[in-house]
């Protein structure tokens, strides 16, 4: 159950961070306005809180593993919201990152 909780928290963190960054991008780069930017700032702040809910107590481990989730989530976000089409090297890179997440977070430790 701990692994499931951790994975759900990683997904929530990715939605908050990637979504927040996207909102800021839309507000500034696409000139949608400061309310978009404000929404992005709130979402980015929420990301910081979600990360603290991970069951592992080691900040460095959580953030290192989350880096792999961020890579995968960013490409998926691009596919769903921006029409980005990843090539095979993008997909290989994502697979490597997700294997890294699994090793960092879920390898048995003594």
Topology record:
Blueprint lengths: L1 H27 L5 H18 L7 H24 L5 H19 L4
How would you describe this protein?
It is a single chain. The chain has 110 residues and is mainly alpha-helical. It has helices at residues 2-28, 34-51, 59-82, 88-106. It is flat and about 50 Å long.
Descriptive key words:
110 residues, mainly alpha
The biggest beta sheet is recorded as: none
Rg is 15 Å
Low-confidence regions: none
Into which percent range does the helicity of residues fall?
Answer: over 70%
Number of helices: 4
Q: What structural class results from the helix and strand content?
A: mainly alpha
The rounded distance between the terminal residues' Cα atoms is: 19 Å
Mean pLDDT: 94
Indicate the overall shape: flat
| Topology pattern, helix = H, strand = E | HHHH
Number of strands: 0
State which percent range the strand residues make up.
under 5%
Short structural summary:
This protein has 110 residues and is an all-alpha fold. 80% of the residues lie in helices and 0% in strands. Helix 1 (2-28) packs antiparallel against helix 2 (34-51), helix 1 (2-28) crosses helix 3 (59-82) and helix 3 (59-82) packs antiparallel against helix 4.
